[in-house]
Amino acid sequence: MENENFDLDAKPAGNKDLWLFLIIIDIIFLCVFGYFIYKHFSGRVFDAPANAPRAEQAEVVQTPELPQASEPVLVEENKPVEDSVPAAAPVEIPVTAVIEQEEKKAEEPAKVEPAPEVKENAKKSVIVASSNGGKYRRVTFRWYGEGKKVAIVSGFTMAKPQALKKRNGYWETTLSIAPGTYKFLYVVDGQNTLDPYSQEKDGRSLLIVK
């Protein structure tokens, strides 16, 4: 009896190995089949979006080819580099100095060159009349330059401008002056001006009355 029970409980070893082999074959088949399915669908789903930016990038990167120059370009080699000299800094002039210069220019009498047509009358710009035994001399002053208002100022006018009258092509006035040496200026339109036909001394026109 003990031997019969033992035979009934025992299972054949061959069937167990067969089932185990079939299970392994199924697992391998499922893995291979699943891999091909994944490869097939992943290529369609993931490749299209990935390739799109690459195409756009390719369009952006591509640049038209520039035409080659027909003539060769000469490149100078070993050209010495010129030393750049820094520009001198501008010199600032004080405003007070500029104002003083302008005031000095305004005070200085202007020099007027004689006009070509009146150079022959240069000796007649100041005419001293001969004395007739009197104490004073009759001196006539003539201004041949341009101007709207002309006067003469000197010690014999008591430092007050004496107006000249307009004549045919010149300005004129006649004054009684004692013999001596004088310095005078013409005032033309408010500006002190030298007589271009008289001698100059110390920035003034010179008059000698004998």
Secondary structure layout plus pairing:
Blueprint: H1 2-9, H2 13-61, H3 95-107, E1 126-128, E2 137-143, E3 150-154, E4 162-163, E5 165-166, E6 171-177, E7 180-188, E8 191-193, E9 199-201, E10 204-209
Antiparallel strand pairs: 1-2, 2-6, 3-4, 3-7, 5-6, 7-8, 7-10, 9-10
Description:
- The protein has 210 residues and is of the alpha+beta class.
- The protein has helices at residues 2-9, 13-61, 95-107, and strands spanning 126-128, 137-143, 150-154, 162-163, 165-166, 171-177, 180-188, 191-193, 199-201, 204-209.
- The strands form 2 sheets. Strands 3, 4, 7, 8, 9 and 10 form a 6-stranded antiparallel sheet that branches. A 4-stranded antiparallel sheet has the order 1-2-6-5, with no helix packed on it.
- A hairpin with a 2-residue loop joins β9 (199-201) and β10 (204-209).
- It is rod-shaped, with a radius of gyration of 60 Å.
- The N and C termini lie far apart (188 Å).
